[in-house]
Design goal:
Layout: E1 2-6, H1 9-31, E2 34-38, H2 45-51, E3 61-65, E4 67-69, H3 80-87, E5 98-100, H4 108-119, E6 126-129, E7 152-156, H5 159-167, E8 180-184, H6 186-190, E9 194-199, H7 205-213, E10 231-236, E11 249-250
Length: 251
Amino acid sequence: MDIVISETKQALGRRAAVAGAVAIRRTIREQGAANIILATGASQFDMLAELVQEEIDWSVVTAFHLDEYAAMPVSHPASFRRYLKERFVDRLPQPLRAFHWIDGEGDLAAECRRLGEIIARHPIAVAFIGIGENGHLAFNDPPADFETEAPYIVVTLEEACRRQQLGEGWFATLDDVPRQAISMSIRQILKSGRVVCTVPDRRKAQAVQAAVEGPITPMVPASILRQHPRTTLFLDRDSASLLEHRPSSDP
């Protein structure tokens, strides 16, 4: 795992977007098309704002997203489909080849199977992801399943995860936060050729420290990223503040 520390969230977002764009363009040159994974949440605001401005032929890019709440209509402000439509798809200069949305409003198991069949035909070039306050990847809360080969799974969200969603302002009360979701699995994320992990803010510092310097364990799902050969963790000085061995910061 490589680590890049920037002084500000904006600089972090820019560096992460550039790194991902380089990988996308390289894949398009070599293969004629590229498949990507996108995350949501407050941690991705700056990265996505920069990524949509990159010079990329989006017409040959197919996108997937990491997770979606169960029984969440796309009209809800917390819907990840709505988030990515407003913050990514609608801001692109040209349409994507395809975006395979997660629909959590129907049969969850059937939706997992449907998406699993699609992503099996689309090797992922770049996964743009984050780390949760509890160390989760996507909605794989601790203890995460490191073994399942299913590309998408139905998960139950632990309270710490739900409180993060409340704290970020997506819901009015904790009771409003759904208790189930569809999530891309750990093994599916790790199949990505390149992982760009964007993690700003001091509230993520403990999770970052555990993921980078603690044991690799399902109790800290993000720790598994250390086993991926092409992962870069993009931090700001706040999220990196608890690391014992910190690389020098970039402006």
